[in-house]
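FORM 7B: Structural annotation worksheet

SECTION A. Query
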Amino acid sequence: MAEDLHPDARRHLRRNFILGVANGSIFSLGDALQETNLVLSVFINQLSGSNLLVGFLQPLRLGGWFLPQLLLSGRVQAAPDKMRFYRLGAALRSISLFALAAAVFLLRDPRLLLALTFLFLGTFSLTGGLSGIAFMDVVGKTIPSRMRGSYFAWRMFLGGVLALVGSFIVRYVLGRPEQFTFPHNYALLFLLAALAVGVSMSAFALVKEPGDGQAQPQAGVAEQFRRARKLPAANPDYRHFLTARILLMVAEIASPFYILYASDAAGVPVAMAGTYLMVSTIANIASTYFWGRVSDRSGNRALLRLACAIGAAAPLLALAVAPVMSVSGTAGSAVATLVFGLMFVVLGASRTAVNMGGQAFLLDIAPAHDRPIYLGFTNTLVGVASVTNILGGFIIEALDYRVLFVIALITYLGAGWTMTKAREPRQVWGEAE
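SECTION B. Predicted structure
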């Protein structure tokens, strides 16, 4: 299964596999302790009282990680040793979270604390772009194609279990204001998150990167952008994948509003949000084994097509709630609660498939010597697409929830149709042989 690896990578395969799984699993714990929608958004709202500032959190977290990767890809591509970039990014990310915890614990001026919070969160996200592009390149060099499905599946499965642990920690700390007063309760969560992130990134920093000499002459940002623009035209399979990946990010525009629609239009109790979060997380965990098998046996094109089809069921179920309630009579509210529960199961499973299949397909399709530019260009465009998520609230205010769900449905279906035109990379390898 590892015939496509450098001999050094084959020798250290077991070690690198275990360290990579440990990295992803423990990082999920740290991520849950500073989760954007449930921890950071409430913290910022309590600190500032501004929903506008809360609205900037998701683009900051996603865009900060995705957007700079094309700018950094030239430097990473020119270096035979990619791990030094990962270690630098890892150190800066850990320091930024420790600094955030210290600031929340020590400062009393809310305006200064607010500014430093966004500064440290921005640093955490932006330096993630540096460590992220190096991480994916190293994974491509150390984990063979036919093991990447199980590799990412184990990361997501164990990470989901630890994320559940993190959710209980969050519930315990924030649910005892008499014991953990504001903002010290959040300082504790950020400190625990910093420790988890530090341990997880230290684990991957111990990965043995093969000295395969895969490096290119360093290109400036303008030259790298010119090269990147030609990639979709030169590689039709990559073009179809890139289009599908962008559409899948746009489809996320509806995600923050499903629970609001459940409460406003269907009368689902707001208290069900915690239950739905747990249901979605369990679906995430439970689906990882199946998605890993699909990836390893059928390929990542098949996995992404399944992800698009299942993802499309979420807005479809949301659109079906009103008609179902109208024919359910007095049982309408209970039926709506169940329908939305199923919808969050679908969301949890499809997101896992998108994350797993998207990363693995890109590693399969990108030539080893050009992997950083493929990673950087893809993630930068996906980062640009993530900014569209800001428009969801405006669409609801100007039109209706259902318009937003129709947009999500169309983009899911469009992504699935686009992936049907891409070839499975392993079949291409077989034709080449």
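SECTION C. Observations
Confidence is low (pLDDT under 50) at residues 429-433. The CA atoms of residues 78 and 216 lie 5 Å apart.

SECTION D. Sign-off
Analyst initials: ____
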